[in-house]
Amino acid sequence: MSFVSKIIISSNFEAVKEKLLSEYSSSIIKFIPKEVTDEFLMDNAKEVQRESFIAENKEKIIVIMANSFRNEAQNFLLKLFEEPPKNIKFLLVSPSRNLLLATVRSRFICENLKEQKIKKDFDLSPKNLDLKNFFAFLQKNENMDKNELLDFIQDFAMKTCQYKNLDEKELEYFYKFYELARLNSRASIIISAMFLLLQERL
Questions:
Q1: Which terminus of the chain has fewer CB atoms gathered within 10 Å of its CB, N or C?
Q2: Phi, psi of 72, rounded to the nearest 5 degrees
Q3: Is 59:28 a contact under the CB 8 Å cutoff?
């Protein structure tokens, strides 16, 4: 399968790298720099140029991944991008289109890989809200991070609304729990408070 030079817009560099290595032989892929860098510099651009002019009998993909790109480094590579040596293909990976000069973008097709968040399935609902299930859930999730906690509160609020018609005051409690989570309150404290409150009302 022949590779088509392009730009990929994504901040998930590792996922892009894994996909590329699963589709093409590692022997034809050159990462410059070898690890993702905060900024693609002129020295990196010169390395890309040197690698591009190493003669190849088969296709070679030069992969450039960075969180930002110096304008002078991009300008240095414009001619190379426009007229690459035989069998040389380029893949540029950037978190944003705006980090790349319009003159660079115009030389490639551009793919925007939208990172879809995989929503965690929380195994606690009002239907099984007893002390045993609560402690099992708390033990498993007491160290969940802020974003997971916010997702859990939203998930549990939706499940509770499906299970029971909540009045305005009861809905307000969920809003308060959500605000506490945004202020970095500990997950174990918020989950325990939710359990105690709902035990009284469900």
A1: N
A2: -65, -30
A3: yes
Which token pair is 168?
């305005």
CB 92 within 8 A of CB 7: yes
Extents of the domains making up the chain: 6-112, 131-200
Q: How many CB atoms lie within 10 A of CB 13?
A: 19
Find where tokens 């408070």 sit: 193
> What is the Cα–Cα distance from 48 to 90, expressed in whole angstroms?
10
* CATH superfamily, region 6-112: P-loop containing nucleotide triphosphate hydrolases (3.40.50.300)
Task: Tell me the percentage of the chain whose pLDDT exceeds 90.
Answer: 48
Cis preceding-peptide flag for 126 (omega within 30 of 0)? no
Condensed to tens digits (0 to 9), the pLDDT of residues 55-110 reads 778 999 999 999 999 999 999 999 999 999 999 999 999 999 899 999 999 999 99
Reported residue count of the chain is: 202
How many CB atoms are located within 10 Å of the residue 94 CB?
Answer: 24
